[in-house]
Prior knowledge:
Helix 2 (27-36) packs across helix 3. With 218 residues, the chain is mainly alpha-helical. The protein has helices at residues 2-16, 27-36, 42-54, 60-65, 68-74, 81-99, 103-107, 111-119, 126-136, 146-154, 164-173, 179-196. It binds a DNA duplex (13 and 12 nucleotides) through residues 21-22, 33-35, 37-45, 47, 76-84, 87, 122-128, 131, 143, 145-147, 186-187, 189-190, 193-194, 198-200.
Amino acid sequence: MKKDLLEIHDDLLARFGPQHWWPGDTPFEVVIGAILTQSTSWRNVERAIANLKKQGILNPEGLHRIDEKELALLIKSAGYYNAKARKLKEFMNHLYQNYDGDLDRMFSRPTDELRQELLSIWGIGPETADSIRLYAAGKPVFVADAYTKRIYSRLGLVDEGIDYDGLKDYSEKNLPRDAVIFNEFHALLVKLGKEHCRKTKPVCCGCQLEKRCRKRKI
DNA sequence: GGCCAGGACACCA
DNA sequence: TGGTGTCATGGC
């Protein structure tokens, strides 16, 4: 079974090439992007990030100081902007109250404790917490998302009703525990999902995995 | 003009 | 515990 997911990883890597995830110049930028991209296309997030950079506040001090309502207007393009502004401020408050704004200190905590801590912050759920751990902190944890579920399900690897932790556990048990592979595989699954496994497409049309897909709509 | 996008939370039965 | 509604912009 372990060979199975790794084979898919290798197939996708050969097909699409390295994805160079996560887009972001610093770990802090990755954290902000992970929150902003919740249920939102990355293209819309890029505009919001560009606005924050333009204002010179894409750093811990800048986002800690800015007023929540003012922040909401700057990230408007990312959608759900009021909710996301609150989420960003909740994270910043936590970071300053516990680590004096030092992200490295936060990331130095044991991986499991870091997850629990991130989940305790309002607005950070399982996927965002794991995205932060993998792509910002470099921890070897798998990030499952809607594309992972759709693709695994269509390949018949998991049941459609599987939850987030089930997807994550399945992936981690069937792949080498390697941050580089977890990083690339998640990015490749998103790439595949965007191009070939959209919600309204019943199968992964045209891709190398087509033979393995079951012709059913989920 | 409808569907969808790199989720999470609140509320209710 | 599981299902549903809400948050919202922008590309296709």
